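# nightly structure sweep
# worker-07 picked up a monomer target from the shared queue
# config: single-sequence mode, recycle default, output format = structure tokens
# input follows
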Amino acid sequence: MTVRGDLTAQTTTFIGRRTVLADAGALLGRARLITLTGVAGAGKSRVAEEIGRAAEGAGAFQHGVREVRLADLGDAALLARTVAAELQIVDNSQDNGFGRLVESLYDKHLLLVLDHCDHLLDAVRHFVHHLLRECEGLTVLTTSRERLGVYGEHVVQVPGLGDEAVELFLERAATPPAEDEMPAVKALCQAVGGLPLAVELLAAQAPAAQVAEDLGAATLDDVLSWTAQRCTEEQRLLWAELSVFPADFDLAAAEAVASGTVPRDNVAEALDELVRKAIVVASTSQVSGRTRYRVPRAVCEFGARLVPDTDARRRHALHYNAFVDEAARLWFSQDETLWMGRLREEWPNVRAAIGYALATPGLAETGTLMAMNVQRTRFTASAGRLGQARDLLATAREVITEAPLRTSLLAHCAYMAQALGDMATAIPLMNEARSLPRQPTTDMNVLIVEATHLFLVEGSPDCVPLYAHVVELCRQYSPAGDTYCAELMHAMASCFLLDAEAADKATTGLLRTAENNGVEWSRAWGLWHRGLYELLHGDPVQVYALAIEALRTQLAIGDAWGPAYSLWLLACTCAELGAFDRAARLLGALRSQERLARISFGTMSPFRAVLERADRTVRRALADDYPVTTTLGADLRPDQAMALALEPLPDAERRPPKPLLPGGLTRQELTIAGLVAEGLTSKQIGARLFISPRTADRHVVNIRVKLGLPTRVALAAWHREQQGRS
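# output follows
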């Protein structure tokens, strides 16, 4: 993990708090856990950001400062996974994600800011205690309305503002108060105890003198009640409806959620009024450039009490179901970057909507389809959040008990496990899915799982026609993204299990499709497949440029999934080219990448066979230097491993090119001809080369056709003749 500062960019002036900042700053050098406490609206979050900003500016932490806002999180079980996602740590694990955090943070000198912990106090207390115990270089700064109660915790109280409250009022005032109103402003700020949120709410309202007359001494709750009274009925209803959002949202979402109580055409105007009254905070999306909205937590909690028992959460779930469905249909386009950004931006809302739907009678099927459709967008794989996806799908399996949806669900989960190399999980899921009734669409889901089992577990070429059938079904029933993924698996299986001609045709077609559709993700995979073809059937010298371009594209689009496959290809290619030192370091880096991404090439038969051959070659070449060199690669951070992989391969590291092989055969074909000359049967050849007997037999036939030889006996004689000449 590359750690960097990611503190929220601020658009308003930070006022006061010099004493709090000084106290907390002094503690950072000697305390590993600091908690900022204070009542709701005291400004704890903003103070934490400023403390982090000061530490970042001073270079106090070697690996920077990272902030995680927990206000969006409603499920304590997702705490570790949420922190991992915000720290951009790939989390594809089946456990709760804590292990992945420790793996990534144990050697970091880092300040981790956990904001809004009070609604998850027990979970945060346990989480922080164990994280600090496992990661000695870590310092944690939390904000909460009460202390965590963890050993070694230092508490800094965040009180209301003193005289600076007046400065804040003037900074935020909708209309600057006149000189004769200043005594009323000061009295008003004192009446609310200098609470920044209360001051900002009041500054957006009527002249200070009138506000002071209406309120008198007031708590934050009093200020919120007074603010609600000054709203129209539509504004109060909208405020209540918006309280269901666990994170920021856009206008379309607000219109959908509020449509049960506020006319859709009136939502935009009412929302603008809530922004003007400081009830809602507006910002600009870095993804779309459009306005997004957020209700501060204390304001949200009050709003939820305004109109109880609304159906807003159901409308929230249905809106995000439509959003995910649209993403699944449209992401495979030139707008893929925009869709991935939008999915990342909306993920807290999507995750909450799926969780609510799965737990709500009548919506469980909707929640299940949402969880599956998110996977179809490739977002959770690309963003390194397969762990969260697996949690949601596991919950879906508990509530969906009837076919045909359960059939699709089980097959979907099995395919995800297969892609990770987790065959122990995949096989039981596949077998149960096979036993259930099917429809055309569920049949497609089961077929791709069966084809992938034949491919990755059995190494059987029978998977190729099955994949071809799945491609045809996808063209009838599925969007373009699903179809391309099926074509991708068909090309990969053809490359590993069929002859050079079939592999060339399949991989060339895949790359042509990718270049025509304008989707960078698919282009990266098209390049990768051409590299695989050159490694297995063509010229390994050509592989490196293809694999590097594929990897560079994957990194550019933020794909956390594909780089492991590109590392595999580059490591095997270096072994084939005789760049043994580079190969050993990449093999070491690949093992670390497998562990971090929870991908196992060792359980995928075709990948394992090529990887084991490369490993044996490098071991023989480096002898005693092999373990040292692979360890150097394994110790690289992921960003360092990628930098190594992207380095051009110097000619000095390559062995001289081999002369053309007899008869124009590929290396594998010449090897098979030699085994025929030794008298081995197709079954014995398959066992020797980790391919199926049928594939071995097909290779023998193709070699005879290429050389114009009528029988295996003639092929054996030809090979002995070539050996005599050499």
